[in-house]
Amino acid sequence: MAHLLIDGKWSDEVALGRIEQGRFVRKESQFRNWVTGNGAPGPSGRGGFVAAPGRYHLYISHACPWAHRTMIMRALKGLEGMIDVSVVHWLMRENGWTFAPGEGVIPDPLGESRFIYEIYQRADADYSGRTTVPVLWDKETKTIVNNESSEIIRMFNSAFDGAGALEGDYYPMELRGEIDALNDRIYNALNNGVYRCGFATTQAAYDEAARELFATLDMLEDRLSRQRYLCGIQLTEADIRLLPTLLRFDAVYVGHFKCNKKRIVDYPNLWNYTRDLVQRPAINRTFHIDHVRKHYYGSHLHINPHGIVPCGPGIDFTLPHDRERFAT
Description:
The longest helix has 21 residues. The protein is of the alpha+beta class. The protein has ten helices and nine strands.
Protein backbone atom coordinates (compact mmCIF):
# COMPACT_ATOMS: atom_id res chain seq x y z
CA MET A 1 0.00 0.00 0.00
CA ALA A 2 1.26 3.48 -0.80
CA HIS A 3 0.12 7.06 -1.08
CA LEU A 4 0.81 9.82 -3.57
CA LEU A 5 2.70 13.02 -4.10
CA ILE A 6 1.15 15.10 -6.88
CA ASP A 7 3.43 17.83 -8.21
CA GLY A 8 5.33 17.64 -4.94
CA LYS A 9 2.19 18.02 -2.79
CA TRP A 10 1.02 15.27 -0.45
CA SER A 11 -2.24 13.47 -1.18
CA ASP A 12 -3.72 10.87 1.14
CA GLU A 13 -5.16 9.01 -1.84
CA VAL A 14 -4.33 5.31 -1.57
CA ALA A 15 -2.22 4.46 -4.60
CA LEU A 16 -0.87 0.97 -4.31
CA GLY A 17 -2.15 0.27 -7.80
CA ARG A 18 -5.20 0.59 -9.99
CA ILE A 19 -8.21 -1.65 -10.42
CA GLU A 20 -9.04 -2.83 -13.93
CA GLN A 21 -12.21 -4.94 -14.28
CA GLY A 22 -11.91 -5.84 -10.63
CA ARG A 23 -8.23 -6.82 -10.98
CA PHE A 24 -5.51 -5.18 -8.93
CA VAL A 25 -2.65 -3.81 -11.11
CA ARG A 26 0.53 -2.62 -9.34
CA LYS A 27 2.16 0.60 -10.52
CA GLU A 28 5.84 0.68 -11.46
CA SER A 29 8.59 2.43 -9.51
CA GLN A 30 10.04 5.63 -10.97
CA PHE A 31 13.60 6.10 -9.62
CA ARG A 32 15.71 3.65 -11.61
CA ASN A 33 19.38 4.61 -11.30
CA TRP A 34 22.00 2.01 -10.36
CA VAL A 35 24.96 1.85 -8.00
CA THR A 36 27.85 0.19 -9.85
CA GLY A 37 31.40 -0.71 -8.94
CA ASN A 38 32.91 2.08 -11.05
CA GLY A 39 29.99 4.51 -11.18
CA ALA A 40 29.11 3.71 -14.79
CA PRO A 41 25.43 3.73 -15.73
CA GLY A 42 23.53 0.54 -15.00
CA PRO A 43 20.79 -1.06 -17.12
CA SER A 44 18.67 2.09 -16.64
CA GLY A 45 19.10 5.65 -15.44
CA ARG A 46 22.21 7.80 -15.31
CA GLY A 47 25.70 7.08 -14.02
CA GLY A 48 27.73 8.60 -11.22
CA PHE A 49 26.64 6.33 -8.37
CA VAL A 50 29.83 4.50 -7.46
CA ALA A 51 29.81 1.80 -4.79
CA ALA A 52 31.47 3.15 -1.67
CA PRO A 53 31.05 2.24 2.00
CA GLY A 54 29.00 4.83 3.89
CA ARG A 55 27.71 6.69 0.84
CA TYR A 56 24.20 5.18 0.68
CA HIS A 57 21.27 4.97 3.08
CA LEU A 58 18.37 2.52 2.85
CA TYR A 59 14.83 3.35 4.01
CA ILE A 60 12.68 0.29 4.70
CA SER A 61 9.66 -1.12 6.48
CA HIS A 62 10.02 -4.41 8.36
CA ALA A 63 6.43 -5.16 7.33
CA CYS A 64 6.95 -4.74 3.58
CA PRO A 65 8.00 -7.87 1.66
CA TRP A 66 9.65 -5.79 -1.08
CA ALA A 67 11.80 -3.97 1.47
CA HIS A 68 12.50 -7.25 3.26
CA ARG A 69 14.22 -8.73 0.23
CA THR A 70 16.68 -5.81 0.20
CA MET A 71 17.47 -6.38 3.87
CA ILE A 72 18.11 -10.08 3.24
CA MET A 73 20.55 -9.36 0.41
CA ARG A 74 22.23 -6.60 2.44
CA ALA A 75 22.81 -9.10 5.27
CA LEU A 76 23.97 -11.98 3.07
CA LYS A 77 26.49 -9.76 1.30
CA GLY A 78 27.84 -8.27 4.54
CA LEU A 79 26.74 -4.73 3.67
CA GLU A 80 25.28 -3.89 7.08
CA GLY A 81 28.36 -1.86 7.98
CA MET A 82 28.46 -0.12 4.58
CA ILE A 83 24.81 0.84 4.03
CA ASP A 84 22.96 2.17 7.05
CA VAL A 85 19.20 1.87 7.45
CA SER A 86 16.15 3.74 8.67
CA VAL A 87 12.99 1.82 9.59
CA VAL A 88 9.48 3.28 9.44
CA HIS A 89 6.64 2.61 11.86
CA TRP A 90 4.51 -0.42 11.04
CA LEU A 91 1.25 1.57 10.90
CA MET A 92 0.49 3.28 7.59
CA ARG A 93 -2.58 5.47 7.44
CA GLU A 94 -3.36 8.92 5.98
CA ASN A 95 0.27 10.12 6.05
CA GLY A 96 1.71 7.00 4.46
CA TRP A 97 4.84 5.52 6.00
CA THR A 98 5.97 7.56 9.02
CA PHE A 99 8.81 7.67 11.53
CA ALA A 100 6.43 7.94 14.48
CA PRO A 101 8.07 6.59 17.65
CA GLY A 102 7.59 2.86 18.13
CA GLU A 103 9.36 -0.40 18.76
CA GLY A 104 11.87 -1.11 16.01
CA VAL A 105 11.58 2.33 14.39
CA ILE A 106 14.92 3.87 13.34
CA PRO A 107 14.46 7.58 12.54
CA ASP A 108 15.82 9.35 9.48
CA PRO A 109 19.30 10.66 10.40
CA LEU A 110 19.79 12.61 7.18
CA GLY A 111 16.84 14.95 6.84
CA GLU A 112 15.05 14.18 10.10
CA SER A 113 11.95 13.40 8.05
CA ARG A 114 8.69 12.59 9.79
CA PHE A 115 7.25 10.89 6.72
CA ILE A 116 8.66 8.90 3.81
CA TYR A 117 7.02 11.29 1.36
CA GLU A 118 9.37 14.03 2.60
CA ILE A 119 12.32 11.99 1.31
CA TYR A 120 10.73 11.94 -2.14
CA GLN A 121 10.20 15.70 -1.89
CA ARG A 122 13.90 16.19 -1.07
CA ALA A 123 14.84 14.22 -4.17
CA ASP A 124 12.39 16.03 -6.47
CA ALA A 125 10.33 18.99 -5.31
CA ASP A 126 7.84 18.39 -8.15
CA TYR A 127 7.65 14.60 -7.87
CA SER A 128 4.35 12.95 -8.74
CA GLY A 129 3.89 9.30 -7.86
CA ARG A 130 3.87 6.70 -5.12
CA THR A 131 5.95 7.12 -1.98
CA THR A 132 6.99 3.53 -1.33
CA VAL A 133 9.73 1.66 0.45
CA PRO A 134 12.43 0.54 -0.05
CA VAL A 135 14.27 3.71 -0.98
CA LEU A 136 18.02 3.77 -1.65
CA TRP A 137 19.36 7.28 -1.00
CA ASP A 138 22.69 8.78 -2.09
CA LYS A 139 24.16 11.01 0.63
CA GLU A 140 26.64 12.59 -1.78
CA THR A 141 24.23 13.89 -4.43
CA LYS A 142 21.30 14.04 -1.98
CA THR A 143 18.83 12.18 -4.12
CA ILE A 144 17.06 8.85 -4.48
CA VAL A 145 19.07 6.36 -6.47
CA ASN A 146 16.39 3.71 -6.81
CA ASN A 147 13.08 2.65 -5.26
CA GLU A 148 12.63 -0.66 -7.09
CA SER A 149 13.47 -3.58 -4.80
CA SER A 150 14.31 -6.05 -7.57
CA GLU A 151 17.00 -3.68 -8.85
CA ILE A 152 18.33 -2.77 -5.41
CA ILE A 153 19.02 -6.43 -4.62
CA ARG A 154 20.88 -6.79 -7.93
CA MET A 155 23.08 -3.84 -6.94
CA PHE A 156 23.71 -5.27 -3.50
CA ASN A 157 24.59 -8.63 -5.06
CA SER A 158 27.58 -7.36 -7.03
CA ALA A 159 28.22 -3.60 -6.97
CA PHE A 160 30.09 -3.63 -3.65
CA ASP A 161 32.24 -6.69 -4.34
CA GLY A 162 35.29 -4.48 -4.84
CA ALA A 163 34.50 -2.43 -1.73
CA GLY A 164 34.59 -5.24 0.82
CA ALA A 165 31.33 -7.12 0.41
CA LEU A 166 31.20 -10.79 1.38
CA GLU A 167 31.78 -13.37 -1.33
CA GLY A 168 28.76 -14.86 -2.99
CA ASP A 169 26.95 -14.36 -6.28
CA TYR A 170 23.20 -14.85 -5.99
CA TYR A 171 22.61 -14.10 -9.68
CA PRO A 172 25.27 -16.23 -11.40
CA MET A 173 25.57 -16.00 -15.16
CA GLU A 174 24.90 -19.70 -15.77
CA LEU A 175 21.60 -19.59 -13.86
CA ARG A 176 20.24 -16.22 -14.96
CA GLY A 177 17.76 -17.58 -17.49
CA GLU A 178 16.32 -19.99 -14.92
CA ILE A 179 16.27 -17.35 -12.18
CA ASP A 180 14.54 -14.80 -14.43
CA ALA A 181 11.86 -17.29 -15.47
CA LEU A 182 11.17 -18.25 -11.86
CA ASN A 183 11.13 -14.61 -10.76
CA ASP A 184 8.60 -13.74 -13.43
CA ARG A 185 6.14 -16.44 -12.46
CA ILE A 186 6.64 -16.08 -8.70
CA TYR A 187 6.24 -12.29 -8.85
CA ASN A 188 3.04 -12.30 -10.90
CA ALA A 189 1.32 -15.28 -9.30
CA LEU A 190 2.63 -15.21 -5.73
CA ASN A 191 4.56 -12.11 -4.56
CA ASN A 192 2.00 -9.84 -6.18
CA GLY A 193 -0.62 -12.58 -6.40
CA VAL A 194 -1.49 -12.35 -2.71
CA TYR A 195 -2.31 -8.66 -3.26
CA ARG A 196 -4.31 -9.52 -6.37
CA CYS A 197 -6.40 -11.81 -4.17
CA GLY A 198 -6.70 -9.39 -1.27
CA PHE A 199 -7.48 -6.28 -3.30
CA ALA A 200 -9.74 -7.88 -5.93
CA THR A 201 -13.13 -6.21 -6.20
CA THR A 202 -14.92 -8.89 -8.21
CA GLN A 203 -15.33 -12.62 -7.65
CA ALA A 204 -13.93 -13.37 -11.10
CA ALA A 205 -10.76 -11.36 -10.44
CA TYR A 206 -10.28 -13.05 -7.08
CA ASP A 207 -10.87 -16.53 -8.50
CA GLU A 208 -8.38 -15.93 -11.30
CA ALA A 209 -5.68 -14.68 -8.89
CA ALA A 210 -6.27 -17.51 -6.41
CA ARG A 211 -6.02 -20.19 -9.11
CA GLU A 212 -2.70 -18.83 -10.33
CA LEU A 213 -1.39 -18.42 -6.79
CA PHE A 214 -2.08 -21.97 -5.64
CA ALA A 215 -0.99 -23.48 -8.95
CA THR A 216 2.35 -21.75 -8.40
CA LEU A 217 2.62 -22.97 -4.81
CA ASP A 218 1.90 -26.49 -6.09
CA MET A 219 4.65 -26.11 -8.69
CA LEU A 220 7.14 -24.88 -6.08
CA GLU A 221 6.23 -27.72 -3.72
CA ASP A 222 6.98 -30.23 -6.45
CA ARG A 223 10.22 -28.49 -7.45
CA LEU A 224 11.46 -28.42 -3.86
CA SER A 225 10.76 -32.13 -3.45
CA ARG A 226 13.82 -32.75 -5.65
CA GLN A 227 16.31 -30.06 -4.65
CA ARG A 228 17.18 -27.86 -1.71
CA TYR A 229 16.78 -24.49 -3.45
CA LEU A 230 14.78 -23.23 -6.39
CA CYS A 231 17.73 -23.53 -8.76
CA GLY A 232 19.34 -26.63 -7.32
CA ILE A 233 22.17 -26.73 -4.79
CA GLN A 234 22.83 -22.98 -4.74
CA LEU A 235 20.90 -20.25 -2.92
CA THR A 236 19.98 -17.59 -5.47
CA GLU A 237 18.11 -14.36 -5.94
CA ALA A 238 15.00 -16.40 -6.75
CA ASP A 239 14.96 -17.80 -3.20
CA ILE A 240 15.55 -14.34 -1.71
CA ARG A 241 12.58 -12.94 -3.64
CA LEU A 242 10.28 -15.83 -2.71
CA LEU A 243 11.03 -16.06 1.01
CA PRO A 244 9.41 -12.80 2.28
CA THR A 245 6.06 -13.89 0.81
CA LEU A 246 6.30 -17.36 2.36
CA LEU A 247 7.13 -15.88 5.77
CA ARG A 248 4.01 -13.68 5.67
CA PHE A 249 1.66 -16.17 4.09
CA ASP A 250 0.16 -18.06 7.02
CA ALA A 251 0.36 -15.11 9.43
CA VAL A 252 -1.38 -12.58 7.17
CA TYR A 253 -2.26 -13.61 3.63
CA VAL A 254 -4.32 -16.68 4.53
CA GLY A 255 -6.80 -14.65 6.58
CA HIS A 256 -6.40 -11.01 5.63
CA PHE A 257 -6.09 -11.56 1.85
CA LYS A 258 -8.38 -14.63 1.64
CA CYS A 259 -5.55 -16.90 0.42
CA ASN A 260 -6.96 -19.73 2.48
CA LYS A 261 -7.17 -22.75 0.19
CA LYS A 262 -3.97 -24.08 1.79
CA ARG A 263 -1.34 -22.78 4.19
CA ILE A 264 2.43 -23.00 3.79
CA VAL A 265 2.49 -25.44 6.72
CA ASP A 266 0.29 -27.73 4.58
CA TYR A 267 3.08 -28.00 1.98
CA PRO A 268 5.79 -30.22 3.52
CA ASN A 269 8.62 -29.14 1.22
CA LEU A 270 7.76 -25.44 1.18
CA TRP A 271 7.38 -25.40 4.97
CA ASN A 272 10.75 -27.12 5.53
CA TYR A 273 12.36 -24.85 2.92
CA THR A 274 10.99 -21.74 4.63
CA ARG A 275 12.39 -22.81 7.99
CA ASP A 276 15.72 -23.75 6.43
CA LEU A 277 16.16 -20.21 5.10
CA VAL A 278 14.78 -18.16 7.99
CA GLN A 279 16.83 -20.04 10.57
CA ARG A 280 20.06 -18.72 9.03
CA PRO A 281 21.32 -15.94 11.33
CA ALA A 282 21.85 -13.40 8.53
CA ILE A 283 18.27 -13.87 7.32
CA ASN A 284 16.65 -14.37 10.72
CA ARG A 285 17.68 -10.94 11.99
CA THR A 286 15.85 -9.30 9.07
CA PHE A 287 12.45 -10.81 9.93
CA HIS A 288 10.09 -8.97 12.30
CA ILE A 289 6.75 -10.78 12.45
CA ASP A 290 5.16 -8.28 14.88
CA HIS A 291 5.62 -5.44 12.37
CA VAL A 292 4.16 -7.66 9.65
CA ARG A 293 0.99 -8.60 11.52
CA LYS A 294 0.32 -5.14 12.94
CA HIS A 295 0.89 -3.42 9.61
CA TYR A 296 -1.43 -5.45 7.42
CA TYR A 297 -4.31 -5.74 9.85
CA GLY A 298 -3.92 -2.22 11.22
CA SER A 299 -3.31 -0.32 8.00
CA HIS A 300 -5.71 -1.83 5.45
CA LEU A 301 -8.93 -0.37 6.81
CA HIS A 302 -10.75 -0.97 3.52
CA ILE A 303 -10.34 -4.70 4.26
CA ASN A 304 -10.31 -4.65 8.08
CA PRO A 305 -12.31 -1.51 9.00
CA HIS A 306 -11.68 -1.63 12.76
CA GLY A 307 -7.96 -2.35 12.47
CA ILE A 308 -8.18 -5.30 14.85
CA VAL A 309 -5.04 -7.48 14.87
CA PRO A 310 -5.89 -11.16 15.47
CA CYS A 311 -4.14 -13.17 18.16
CA GLY A 312 -3.04 -15.99 15.86
CA PRO A 313 -2.00 -18.12 14.24
CA GLY A 314 1.07 -19.21 16.15
CA ILE A 315 3.82 -20.21 13.70
CA ASP A 316 7.02 -21.83 14.97
CA PHE A 317 9.78 -21.07 12.48
CA THR A 318 12.35 -22.62 14.86
CA LEU A 319 11.18 -26.21 14.31
CA PRO A 320 13.85 -28.49 12.80
CA HIS A 321 13.81 -28.88 9.01
CA ASP A 322 14.87 -31.69 6.70
CA ARG A 323 16.59 -29.82 3.90
CA GLU A 324 20.07 -31.20 4.66
CA ARG A 325 18.91 -34.41 2.96
CA PHE A 326 19.79 -32.82 -0.37
CA ALA A 327 23.38 -32.85 -1.57
CA THR A 328 25.21 -29.51 -1.54
